[in-house]
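>> received
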Amino acid sequence: YYLEQTTGQPYLTLEIDREAVASYNLNVDAVQRVIEVGIGGQVASQVFEGQRQFDIVVRFPEDVRDSFKKIMEVPVYLPTGGFIPLKRVTRIVPQEGPREIAREDGWRRVIVGVNLKEIDIGTYVSRLQKAIDEKLDIPDGYFLVYGGAFENQQRAMNHLLVVVPLSLLIIIGLLYLMFGRLRYAMLIFANLPFALSGGIFLLLMRGFYLSVSASIGFVALFGVAVLNGIVLIAHLNELRQNGMPLRAAVVTGSANRLRPVLMTALVASLGFIPMAFNTGPGSEVQRPLATVVIGGLITATLLTLLVLPTLYNWMEKNRDVPDKDDAFGIHDDD
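>> returned
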């Protein structure tokens, strides 16, 4: 980890001896002005060069202030005439002070950086927040802000809150255009919760949290789940359009589409297995994504082959399967 160093800078401070100042009939302001103006410098005037202006700073020559011994010999003039060296009314005190004072949005801040390995950032921050809540009592006036990659992740999650619902609406629209009936689109869409449940279950079982990569995995999973639903429902409709009774079409169509649905799920799942158990660089991103896809495909495939035909049989009782052109009101005049 990395902790921003805010202290540890050595300082040498000139402290004024007020008793000595009073014994010489001086005041503290006179001594402070010698230190401020002679050593630090003071703006005496300005010079203009075109549109630019520059300050004219007056202070002691460098050969008078290039060592502490010489600084302590700087003259301080007395009200009664004459002068005394600065060392008569001041002393040098070594101190340790801040290296810098960093601010963000008007607040002082200290950065604690952590490099993560073999864990995703969402999981780490969740555990960190829990540990802080249980073990630390943060004083008043202090607060924690999680930035860096986690802040970027939260921003990406907010974008996904818009992208994912929009994607689902587009899927419903495309399914309606394909089948011509909203009930078929919603029937295929009902397969998504089955996929969602499997992805979440395996994600929690492996101890992962919902991250950006896991959310992207859900988007990919929804695509495969919808594809399996389309393959099955389109074939069932085709069998019924050819005159096969509803129940026979459901049984025959499910058996016919068993192999294509399993092949689609297996190809995707087997391809993600190396990512799910990867431990190399980038594994914190790959493992949640692969876990979601594998878990979701297991439940989605089983429920596509078992539950979806049952729902189709229940929904289509006493209904004829329409031709898509009829559904949109398109008729051939010939």
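>> Confidence is low (pLDDT under 50) at residues 327-331.
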